[in-house]
UniProtKB/TrEMBL annotation:
Native species: Aspergillus keveii
Annotated family: Belongs to the alternative oxidase family.
This protein's name: Alternative oxidase
Record key words, sorted: Electron transport, Iron, Membrane, Metal-binding, Oxidoreductase, Respiratory chain, Transmembrane, Transmembrane helix, Transport
Cofactor: Fe cation
Its biological purpose: Catalyzes cyanide-resistant oxygen consumption. May increase respiration when the cytochrome respiratory pathway is restricted, or in response to low temperatures.
A Pfam short name: AOX
Length: 341
């Protein structure tokens, strides 16, 4: 491994210092080629390095090369990700209205916490509406720390129901747990770009305490309303990332134009070498949120007790468009029950 990270300095016969050896050892564990100038470079990349800071470096484990995931992310094409759009499913009954109303209230609260104010047309230039990289990251970290809860609660409760009811679940649990895992990967990725302060950590802690228990009780009462709620929450997430992408494209976030996506993101999304900017990263995250929006609106259309999971199903006519993990068929409002069951 050490030969892979030999520096120009060692090549001309100067012995590296203990500090540089330590740096190189850390880089070797993390799969980054690092020169003595401190500029990281991936083994499989010709683009200059990972300039994100390591707020949670990997634990020291001399015998372990890397930790692999059980849930391999589907590959998205650039074209598919750019086609993702903001959208809304109209509330059709009281359950939908309760779900949508709750999301509106939460959105208002989160906008206040993360310092986000969306300008009315013509007010975009006012300083109180300007978002910086730091403000966006605060918002993302808070959003993602909450977003990882519903899938885990839904998956856990369906798992327990299957155990105590001595009956099968028909594929919902895996999709819900995978969603929770995907949201946690979003959080870990953004934590590579910003280190939250004590206030933010306390907010995350408090929000989880309230949200986990609230969602847990709500899921026991009406899982259908809960999936609709997550569908609406994901509509907001797609909107948030779309606005961040627009800010980046408008040149309002110059720091991110120079920053490369963290290694954890490159590996998880299998980001191609030419598409590893922060804008690419936001396109991947937004596409994931669009998928959660579709999955949860679809789940909200189903019979919770009896219907199989359309995302884990093998269809009698595979040529017909049907729900699947990738972005081949994205339905902003989800699939109706009679289309998929
Ligand atoms: Fe997310
Ligand atoms: Fe999401």
């Amino acid at each position: 491994m050490s030969s892979l990270i030999a520096s120009p300095r060692t090549a001309i016969g100067t012995a590296p210092s203990a500090y540089h050896l330590l740096l190189n050892r850390h880089a070797a564990i993390y799969g980054i080629q690092r020169t003595f100038a401190g500029i990281g470079k991936r083994y499989n990349s010709s683009t200059p390095g990972d300039n994100s800071k390591e707020f949670f470096p990997p634990p020291k484990a001399p015998h372990i090369k890397q930790v692999k995931t059980a849930w391999v992310h589907p590959v998205y094409t650039d074209e598919q990700m750019r086609a993702v759009a903001v959208g809304h499913r109209d509330a059709k009954n009281w359950s939908d209205r309760v779900a949508f109303g709750t999301v509106r209230v939460l959105r208002w609260g989160m906008d206040r916490v993360s310092g986000y104010r969306h300008p009315a047309p013509g007010q975009e230039h006012l300083s109180r509406f300007q978002m910086t990289e730091k403000k966006w990251l605060t918002r993302f970290i808070f959003l993602e720390s909450v977003a990882g809860v519903p899938g885990m609660v839904g998956g856990m409760l369906r798992h327990l129901r299957s155990l105590r009811g001595l009956k099968r679940d028909n594929g919902w649990i895996e999709t819900l747990l995978e969603e929770a895992y995907n949201e946690r990967m979003h959080l870990l990725t953004f934590l590579k770009l910003a280190k939250p302060g004590l206030f933010m950590r306390l907010l995350v802690l408090g929000a989880q305490g309230v949200f986990f228990n609230g969602f847990f009780l709500s899921y026991l009462i009406s899982p259908r309303t809960c999936h609709r709620f997550v569908g609406y929450l994901e509509e907001e997430a797609v909107l948030t990332y779309t606005r961040a992408i627009q800010d980046l494209e408008a040149g309002k976030l110059p720091e991110w134009e120079k920053t490369e996506a963290p290694e954890i993101a490159v590996q998880y999304w299998k980001m191609p070498e030419e598409n590893r900017t922060i804008k690419d990263l936001l396109l991947y995250v937004r596409a994931d949120e669009a998928k959660h929006r579709e999955v949860n609106h679809t789940f909200g259309n189903l019979n919770q007790a009896k219907d199989p999971n359309p995302y884990a199903a093998e269809y009698k006519d595979p040529a017909q468009p049907h729900p699947e993990k990738g972005l081949t068929h994205v339905r902003t409002k989800g699939w109706e029950r009679d289309e998929v069951i």
